[in-house]
From TrEMBL, chains A, B:
Pfam short name (any one): PseudoU_synth_1
Catalytic activity: uridine(38/39/40) in tRNA = pseudouridine(38/39/40) in tRNA
Gene that encodes the chain: truA
Organism: Clostridium acidisoli DSM 12555
Lineage: Bacteria, Bacillati, Bacillota, Clostridia, Eubacteriales
Protein's recorded name: tRNA pseudouridine synthase A
Subunit structure, interactors included: Homodimer.
């Protein structure tokens, strides 16, 4: 049985996220499983490095699948390129050991949230960038981001309903940069709870806009439950940049 | 009577080009005239710096219009931003002398044609870049481009039906560059005939692909009529970068 690791780029605009919910639905996982199953004649299950929310994009999403199919990886890539929709591309594929598991083995993931802080939207990236012309104070955002670095219980930063699952995660860094009015919030961590990246960005944006202070972010974190403040940032600005193993 | 000059960015993907053909049609000119007419209560006619083909984009398209409306240019920009579709943005507006005419006064225009020469498309710019993984020889393309620099009769490089209009134009430069597999063909000239930029790019691409040589391009130019070779490059890769006055 071969185990194949894929690197996938997708424009999540029209999808209900990575994870298949039922057969035939509009998810990236389903689209890829469907093409791989036709290609191999097998019932392929793809293991992804994590869920991404509806509308979230990926530059280098990692997934793997098992197959008896003997096609070369290059032939498989060509097949996928031909039959996947134009907003999903499997960029590369490689043989990995049988124990490789895209979700269990991931060490950390990096997400980038993009904000166009110029007066008007840019028509060419409008589907991948959140637009606001309100003044954003980056040094306040950076100070508040420091509060979240490290290992914490992130219950306050998830819309996860069940409280039975562990909610402790480690954020390794949050880099906030700005070039030509495009602000990028880059977050790397060992794992993220449901909506966690978007709630973190939404909360940091409230700080940047002067509606919250970094002490408030500390209070929210210590509260260990999801409160009213800290709105969820719009999905379209978020992109999974990479998954590290 | 005020004369107002606008700088416009648009994603031409779903439009039939700049120029209005009838009232209510899907052209950029019509969309802007419609919003300006509602804003002013006048029947606004917008003068553009030139036609762009269906599917062609613009980064800095220049246009002007006359009005008695006394709104500030900032208020007009806000109104346009609110009521234009999301793929058209008027980026700036300024008062100009009454004699300024966006089409008659333009000195030169610069177009950029983008080609993704990597194996697979990039989902995030797929609507703005022509995709081919075939090997393209850039130095051959540059040599052939030299043939076209200067003042020539460009009848061989237009789909213009009528031969009564003058077809002599001056191309000031053609720069061909490549970064990370994205090839950019930048063309500046004093004016371009119908489809001329796309036919030039299509012809240069044939040279890059080894199907034509620069001597063939010279022959095509000297022929002074539109021949079979030199296909028209796809519209979606083309963008009007700027218009100079």
């Amino acid at each position: 049985m071969r185990n194949l690791k894929m690197k996938i780029q997708y424009d999540g605009s029209k999808y209900k996220g990575w994870q298949r919910q039922k057969v035939g639905d509009l998810t990236i996982q389903y689209k890829i499983e469907n093409v791989l199953s036709k290609m191999t004649g097998e019932d392929i299950k793809v293991i992804g490095c994590g869920r991404t929310d509806a509308g979230v994009h990926a530059e280098n999403y990692i997934a793997n699948f098992h197959t008896e199919c003997e096609l070369s990886t290059n032939s498989m890539l060509d097949y996928l390129y031909e039959f996947l929709p134009e907003d999903i591309v499997v960029k590369s594929m490689e043989e990995v050991g049988e124990r490789f598991h895209a979700r269990y083995n991931v060490k950390s993931k990096t997400y980038v949230y993009k904000i166009n802080n110029n007066k008007f939207r840019n028509v060419f990236n409008r589907k991948y960038v959140y637009q606001t012309e309100e003044h954003i104070n980056l040094s306040d955002m950076r100070e508040a981001a420091e509060v979240l670095i490290g290992t914490h219980d992130f219950q306050s930063f998830t819309n996860l309903k069940s409280s039975t699952k562990p909610t402790v995660r480690t954020i390794n860094y949050i880099n906030i940069s700005e070039v030509n009015g495009i602000i990028e919030v880059e977050i790397n961590g060992d794992g993220f709870l449901l909506n966690m990246v978007r709630i973190i960005v939404g909360t940091l944006l409230e700080v940047g806009l002067g509606k919250l202070k970094s002490v408030d972010v500390k209070k929210i974190l210590d509260e260990k439950k999801r409160l009213e403040y800290g709105p969820i940032a719009k999905a379209k600005g978020l992109c999974l940049k990479e998954a590290l193993y």
